[in-house]
Structures are given as C-alpha cells and as structure tokens.
Amino acid sequence: MAMNQVWGLLVVLVFFNGCFIEEQRHTCAQARIPRSKKLMNASVVSRPEVVKIGSILTFDSTIGKIGKIALEAAVEDVNSDPTVLNGTKLELTIHDSNSSGFVGIMEALQFMESESVALVGPESSALTHMISYVIKELKIPLLSFTATDPTLSSLQYPFFIRTTHSDIFQMAAIADIIDYYEWREIVAIYIDDDHGRNGITSLADQLAFKRSKISYKAPINPDATREDIHDVLLQVSFKESRVLVVHTCTNWGLDILDVAKELGMMDSGYVWIATDWLSTIIDINSPLPKKSIASMQGVITLRSYIKDSQLKRKFVTKWENSTKLGLSTYSLYAYDTIWLLARGLDDFFHQVGNISFSKGPQMKDSQGTFVNLDSLSVFNGGKALLENILRVQMNGTTGPIEFTSDKSLVFPAFEVINVIGTGFRTVGYWSNSSRLSTSPPETLNTNLTNQSSSSELLYSVIWPGQTVKKPRGWFFPQNGKQLKIGVPVRVSFQDFVEEVKGTDRYVGYSIDVFIAAVKLLPYAAPYTFYSYGDGHKNPAYTDLVSLVNAGVYDAAVGDIAIISNRTRMADFTQPYIESGLVVVAPVRRVSSGTWAFFRPFTAELWCVIGICFLVVGAVVWILEHRRNDEFRGTPRQQVVTTLWFSFSTLYFSHKQNMTSSLSRFVLILWLFVVLIISSSYTASLTSILTVQKLSSPIEGIDSLKSSKDRIGYQESSFVRNYLVEEIGISENRLVPLNLPEDYEKALNDGPQNGGVVAIVDERPYIELFLSTRCQFSIVGQDFTKNGWGFAFQRDSPLAIDISNAILKLSETGELQNIHNKWLLRSACSSQGAEFSVDRLELKRFKGLFFIIGLACFLALFVYLVLIIYQYTKHKPDPSESPGTTPGRLQTFISFIDEKEDSLNTRSKKRLRQASSFRSNRDIVSLNGYRCNRKESSSIAPECSEHGD
After folding, report:
1. β-pairing verdict for 555-561 and 498-499
2. How far apart, in whole angstroms, are the C-alpha atoms of residue 173 and residue 274?
3. pLDDT band for position 940 (cuts 50, 70, 90)
C-alpha cells in the first residue's frame, strides 16, 4: 500500500474514531485536556512509576489465547522483580482485533493516543504490515512474536522488531528436507495473504539453490469455506507432484488436512510437509480429536527448537498451574518479548532518563491542505528505545536472546517432527549452521568436528499410508495425458531406430531398450511416439533435444549421444550403450616378412637389451677378475670370455663358475630378467608369424590430424563440430556422408579419387558398418568416451526412474539380449579386429631394467668398499718394487688387477718375515740380559754385552 493511501486510511479512521463513536469521542476529549500538563511533568520525572505498553491479539485464535496468557505472566514477573526496572511498573493493555484488519488499525490508533511506549503484536503478518507504516511515523517500537513474514524487513520497517525467527529459516529447513529425499518438484498450498504468499516465495528461492522448484501453487482464500478448500485440493490431486507443502495458519490447517483425507490424498505415495502451524496445534490442543489425528498421520512438520534450561522449566511449571492449554513455543517467545522490552526500557532510562511525547505530524492531502493528526502522539525517545532493545543480550526461556545486524534473532533452529499414532516423534534437527542432523544443534555448534559424516541426516520416517519406504514424490495424473516422445526418423543405420512405413510404430535397438525400461517402471507411463525428421536425411539430434527443452516434447528417444551442449538443455538417463568417436580406414593384410623376427621388440628396446648384456658381463668380469682364473688372461682372452659369458646367459648355457657371492647375486637377477624377456619375445613372435595382421597408413586421430587428406563424417552429426572446434581440423577437409554405402564408396575411392582417407563416427555405427565389410577396420583407440541415452525435460523424475530401469535391464542380462538381437553380426568377427601395434615397447620392461641396474650398482659399490679396505690393509711395500716408485693411482690399479691368491701369498710372506724379525730381536734381548747377569755376579767379567 502506498504511503498516501495509508495516511488517507488513517484520516478516515481518525475521523471515524473521533466523530462517530460516542464513547471514543468522550475519551478523546478527556485525553486532550491534560495533555500539556502531562508533557510538562514528563520532562522533570526521570523514571515514571508506570510505563504503558499495548498489545493487539486475536482472542479467538489458538496463538492469541496462549499469547495473552504468556504476556500477562511476563508482565507480572517483571513487575514483581524490583531489579529489572528499579520500581517502574509495566501497564499492559491487550485489545482483541477480532481477526479484522480494520479493527486492528483502530486498536493501534487507540494505543497511539494513550502514549504507549511500545506495541506487542499483532498476530497477523498482514496487519503488521499496515501498522508498521503508522509506528514508523510515530516512532514507537513494534515487537511481534508471531509475524514471521520475511518481507517485514528492517529497511522498510525500521521500528519493527521480530522476536521470533523469520520464515526464511523455516523455508530453508524445508528445502533441505526436500533435497535430502531427492525430490525435485513440489506443490505449495497456502493462505492467500501476505504471510502465505511471502513465505512461499521464500520457499521457492530456497528450493532454487537445491535445483528444485514449486511446480504448482494452490492459494486458498482467507475467507474460504470447506467447499472452496475441497475445490483447491481437487485441482492439486490432478498434478504430477505428490510432495505437498502446507503453509497456513492454525485456523485453517486442520480443515485442509481433513479435506485431503476425504479425497484420498493421505494415502501411500503422498508426502505432506507442514510448517510450524501443525506443531503449534499439537502442542496447545493435545489431545486432539480422533478425526484430526487420523487426517495428519505421516505428516512432517517443524517446531522451533528450544534447549531445555532452568528458566524454561520454571516457566513450564507456572504455565501448567495457570491454564489447561498446552505450552507452545509461541508462549515462550511471547514471554521473552516482555522481558526483552523491560531490559531495553531499563537501559533507556539509564541513557535518556525520561519519557516524552510530542504532537502528531502534519501532512498535506491531494489538495495541498493540511491534515490534522493532533490526536496522535510521537514518542520522542522511540529511536533510543529501539536501539536499546536491539542491544539487549540476555538469556530467556527460549535460550540466548541477541540480535544480528539485520535485526534477526541468533541461532535459528527447528525440530523435524513426524506425526505418528496419537503423538509424534522427533526424526531430526535443523539449524542455520549445521543444517540437517540427527543430533541437537547445541552439540554441533559447540564442536563442529563432532558432526557426523554419515549420510543419514534424519531418522526413518513413517509416511502417509503407514509405509517406511520413501515415497517417489510424483506420479502420472489420471487425466488421460500421455507423454509426447520425439523419435528421429533415420535414413541410415536403421537397426537403431526405424519407422515402420504406413504405421505409427517404431522398431530398432534404441526403441526396444526404451520399451523394456518403461515396462519395469512401478507405475503406468502412457506415451505416444512422434516423428522428427523429413525422411530424406538424418535429423540433427541437438535440435531434437532443444525441442524437449522448449516443451514441445516430453522426451526424446533414439540413438542420442550424451554430449555437453545437450546436457545443458535436458536431463539424460543412464547410458544404455557405450559410445565414443573412432577412426575407420581401409586396411590391407600383411605377411610376416623376411625380418619378422625383429618385430617383437622396438628398436629402442633392442638397444637397451644389448646394452644390458654388455653391462652385466662387465660387472661380472669386475667381480670375478681377482679370484677367478676363467676371467683372467690376456686382454683379448678376457674380452672374449666376458662377451661369451654375457650372451650365453640368453640360453642359460654359460659354463663359467662364479666364485664371488656378489657376482652370483647379480647373475640370479639377470637370469630372471632374461627369462622374462625371452618369454615375451617368444609369445610376440608366435603371434606375428601365425596371425594375419592388418596394416593402414592411418594409425589414429593424431596421424589423421597431421595429414592433409579429406575425412568423412556422418551428416547431421555432432562429429563435424567436434572435429573443427576440439581437434582443430579444417572444415575444407570434412566430407558429409549419409548412408553406409556412401561410407564404403568414399573409403574405396580414397582421397586421390575424390573419396576420403578415413571416416570419423561413433563406435556403434562403425561396428554395424564393419560387420559386413571386412576390408575396413577401426584404427587407433577411441578418442572420446560417452554413451547414448534418452533425453527428458529438465528435472523430470522420469529420467531417474528410467535410469534405474536401464540398470536393472543390464543386471538381468536383458540389455545384452536386445543388443544381440539387433547388432550382433558374425561375418567379419574373425578378422575384423581393430588395428593395433603388436610390438613390445621399452616402457613395458622398465621395472625389470631398473631391478638389474640397481643390483649391478649395489654389487659394484660393495665390491669397491671391500677393495679399498684390502688396499689400505695390504697395500704393496715400495721396497718390494725396485727401480722407479709408482704413483698412488697406478699402485691402486695394479692392486685391483693383482690376483687375490698372489695378495694372500705376499701377505703370508710378510707375516713370516715379521715373525722372524721379532724372534731374532727377542733372542738378542735375552742374551744381553744373561750377560748383564754374569757381569753383576763377577763370574764372567770379560763377557761382552752382546754375548758370543
């Protein structure tokens, strides 16, 4: 509603309120007399004894009843606690809007005249919208514990404070539930007012993030009768989606479920998700009548999650002692609203100190004259009170109360409830931080690492119809509508799709797979085939898929390749046959040839094998040279012996004995390598000499790309764009071909005679083409990998069900039977093998060569360490080599070349000489000792010092 319309309405209401109601005229006159005195007194009193606040509720509604009790209880508790407002009392006045927007406006205006500092309510989001315009001008905070409309934003309505959670979070929870069960389309049933429309709009936005959508909206007039609800739900029953979300008020919700029960819409296959209105009814009015309980079996609903606390338990006890009505979460939010206002007022008094009002604003009407709104009062401290309320941080019965920057309460969380029997069961939780979970939000918020990685985010649910199996969520409506299936009219390769002339029937491999899959569906899916194509050339399949996207066809069935640009337009099923682009070219049979025995190995592999023979021979010679006489002699003899030993290992016929443990270690590993190489050579040579081979100058897409010859492709196929855009082949080289006979002629003619050097097409077509043409063959490997599937409109549930049916066909072998029926050919099965290179390459033996190389390196390293040790221990004495003294390197080389037996002999000789020298020295020493003894005894003074 525009601002001028709102103020116009206010003028009428003020005039009506002041002139036509006698009782109100008297009240207004009484109020105007002491106005100036009150304003003067307010300026000097810092804390008033009484602060007036008002509330607008609907007394005959469920929420209105419990809200009134909770507000009064809160005011009583605040006034009895002197620490809250320091002696100031709250005076609450509650008015009944009687479910009328007009009466609600009247009640709001009365509050504006009574100098109330805040207004609590109203219950209706629509009425809150209207009143919010008024309080914005009069600067009076409006606190609502029931208005969950997401469009009541802080920007448009700056003096509105929502003391419960917005429907944005509730709709996000429902969207997560729908996404968890993998439903893609829902039907929204709602009351056609601001609360219903805006809530469903928010749900649509949340579903869009999950790639789901609302397929049908079913609004219900706020003044609808039971017959009107019956008509709306009857239309819903004709829709495909069976997932129904009901967003309404407590007054209408049970009637909707009751009518749905009468229409058979609470049976197996349906999914009913209700917003928190249903949990509110269950909490407040329990136990419900049997009729109401029967109509809500299997329904999922949400309820604000409130953690158990001492404040909550205290309030529950007081509630049970004061009323027979059940306790709802709205009762707790209403109770906390008064406490929140009281805390804000207390801070306001500390900051501002007094309460004052001024005269109402003056506005001009359409003629430019002033409209007098003097009966209304503007709260001078309204903005300060608003800011103090938003800054409050407290613990209430609902838990921590604190506002975010956009004036929303922190920690939005809900319970996911499943109605079962005469009660309900909590099957999970949702919070804005942890989303769906089977654990309470506080356990996940305190430590996010505790969040379960399990895929089970909700416990099992008992759905309508007393089934635990997850409903499919949709079905084909029983209204005679059939699926429109587009089928391409092929002129070539009709084994896949063929139209029976003169009828509306289609046959072929692809058609049989689709028919078999439809038969496996757990429901009837009537369909009608529609031809696509002119019958003179194959149609463009991308254009056919685009018609599915445009809604011309519900699906497209045929040999349709699943490629990227098509998946952006439609949803495809599971591939029912593997495909990919291949190259087919003429091949010739080649004989083994004179030098065929060289073909098993590539030239690179031959070279590496020869080098390995020489290296192993050299290593064994080094390890055996010092101790084995068979590896000694003249240089010519040593070279011949080494080569003979090395190459004789190829036949395991070497006769040299190994005396070194290191050489035996190397030889064992080398014989293992030789065994593998010789076995591979034998197997490959046998294949070359016994099996006929096919040869082609084209070896695959790479050689085709590097050539300049013309290339054929199937007309109207995506192959042309792929070769040009992805492979980079010039368009001038591409030749469109239509029939298999055109393929054969073009390949036989060759590029020199106006034909093509090769043809690029999808593997199923080529295999069918080659089944009776043995002079051609596939060369190289598939250079793309994809498959064929059936295309359906985006988010169509049929795509998933048909995919499951195709998997079942594959598991049971039926898919292979259909393949054999249409595509199995045996004419060229024995020689129609793909062209491939049969030569063994070096990369296949890298592991073997690495092992023998590592063994040789380790053996030489150990040998070198031992030689150095022996050299330092037994190095030759320079005195033993008369003449010129050799250098260190020459001495070391001579030491290595020396036979180990000579070293041992020289070492023993040195030991004998050293022993003889020590013996002589000992004798001389002994004789000297004896002489000294005789000299000392004067028996032989003439004895010399050295004896005889």
Report:
1. unpaired
2. 12
3. very low
Cβ contacts of 432-435, under 8 Å, gap ≥ 24: 432/169, 432/172, 435/176
Per-residue confidence at 40, pLDDT binned at 50, 70, 90?
A: very low
Tens of pLDDT, residues 135-171:
888 899 999 999 999 998 777 899 999 999 999 999 9
In whole angstroms, give the CA distance from residue 3 to residue 137. Answer: 11
Amino acid at the residue 146 = T
> What residue type is assigned to position 327 of the chain?
L
Give φ, ψ of 504 to 5 degrees: -105, 20
Return the residue matching tokens 């690492």: 449
Between CA 207 and CA 216, with CA 210 as vertex, the angle to 5 degrees is 35
**3-class DSSP state for residue 401?**
strand
| CB atoms closer than 10 angstroms to residue 941 | 9
CA distance 440 to 399: 14
What is residue 45's predicted lDDT score, i.e. its pLDDT?
46
Q: Using only C-alpha atoms, what is the Rg of the chain?
A: 49
Tokens read off for 217: 């909206």
Distance CA 682, CA 679 (A): 5
In angstroms, what CA-CA distances link 836 with 227, 748, 776, 840? 76, 21, 13, 12
CA distance 769 to 777: 10
CA dihedral 106, 111, 112, 117 (to 10 degrees): -150
CB pairs under 8 A, 24+ apart, for 25-34? Answer: 28/113, 28/375, 31/113, 31/114, 31/375, 32/375
Interatomic CA distance for residues 669 and 855, integer angstroms: 8
**Residue carrying structure tokens 């289609």:** 506
Backbone torsions φ then ψ of 701, nearest 5 degrees: -65, -30
Residue 877 pLDDT grade (very low, low, confident, very high; cuts 50, 70, 90)? low
Give the global pTM.
0.67
Q: Give how far Cα 88 sits from Cα of 80, 155, 349, 351, Å.
A: 10, 32, 10, 15
Round to whole Å and give the CA distance between 370 and 362: 6
DSSP conformational letter for 20:
I
CA–CA dist 374, 376 (Å, integer): 5
CA angle 496, 500, 504 (to 5 degrees): 110
- Judge contact between 526 and 468, C-beta under 8 A: no
Cis peptide before 697 (omega within 30 of 0): no
The one-letter amino acid code at 12 reads: V
Distance CA 594, CA 165 (A): 88
Contacts of 862 by beta carbon, 8 Å cutoff, 6+ apart? 662
pLDDT tens profile 847-865: 888 888 898 899 888 888 8
State the DSSP string of 652-676: T---PPP--HHHHHHHHHHHHHHHH
Distance (Å, whole) CA 61 – CA 325: 13
Residue 756: which residues within 8 A CB-CB, separation 6 or more?
709, 710, 711, 712, 735, 737, 746, 747, 749, 750
Helix (H, G, I), strand (E, B) or coil at 161: strand
**Which DSSP symbol is given to 242?**
-
Amino acid at site 945: E
Angle, helices 846-874 vs 900-937, to 10°: value is 20
Residue with tokens 């009425």: 127
Q: How many residues does the chain have?
A: 948
Residue 487 near residue 291 (C-beta atoms within 8 A) = no
Q: How far apart are CA 343 and CA 346, in angstroms?
A: 5
CB atoms within 10 A of CB 663: 23
Cα–Cα distance between 682 and 33 in angstroms, integer?
121
Query: Is 545 within 8 Å of 566 (Cβ atoms)?
Result: yes
Distance CA 316, CA 328 (A): 10
| Closest by Cα among 71, 60, 119 to 331 | 71
* Residue 575: Cβ-neighbour burial (10 angstroms; 0-12, 13-18, 19+): middle
Residue (of 908, 930, 926) closest to 918 by Cα position: 926
Query: For the packed helices 603-624 and 846-874, what is the interaxial angle rounded to 10 degrees?
Result: 20
